Amino acid sequence: MGNTAFTRLARWVVGLSWVYHGLFPKLLHVAPLEYQLTAQLGLGDPATLWLVRGAGVAELLFGLLFILLWRRPLLHWLNIAGLLGLLLFVAVMMPAALFDTFNPVTTNVPLLALSLYLLAQVRAHQRETRATGQ
């Protein structure tokens, strides 16, 4: 399967990015921007905090699943959809955030590229496995 060292690195970078973004700006400390973005939904303070923390749990679990089950194409498609969806959410709810330092564009686009690379690796591995009958 291609460059296994880079594949391993890409898998861990994508997975740990989800773990980090679930754990630090949502669970251990609710980052002001995370709260402001979610508050734009108009749910009120308690519901906003629950939604931020729920998203943190979901992101943390998804990151762990991505690391462990990365050979499943569905996880890559969910990753791609999630990253694009989050980028769109920011673009609609708080477009100015797209131009800040360390913005969702500079985070999500490289992760999308890594996921596309990993998806190609998974597909190549599946083709090889079918061809050899293993």
Describe this structure as you would to a colleague:
With 134 residues, the protein is mainly alpha-helical. It has one domain (4-132). The chain contains five helices and no strands. Helix 2 crosses helix 3 and helix 4 (73-93) runs antiparallel to helix 5 (104-132). The longest helix is centred in the last third of the chain and has 29 residues, at 104-132. The protein starts with a helix and ends with a helix.
Topology:
Layout: H1 4-28, H2 32-39, H3 45-68, H4 73-93, H5 104-132
Helix pairs in contact: 1-3, 1-5, 2-3, 4-5
Helix content range of the residues, please? over 70%
Query: Into which percentage range does the β-strand content fall?
Result: under 5%
Mean pLDDT: 95
**Sheet of most strands:** none
Shape: elongated
Strands, total number: 0
Structural classification: mainly alpha
Query: Strand-and-helix sequence, N→C?
Result: HHHHH
Q: What is this structure, in a nutshell?
A:
The protein has helices at 4-28, 32-39, 45-68, 73-93, 104-132. The protein has 134 residues and is mainly alpha-helical.
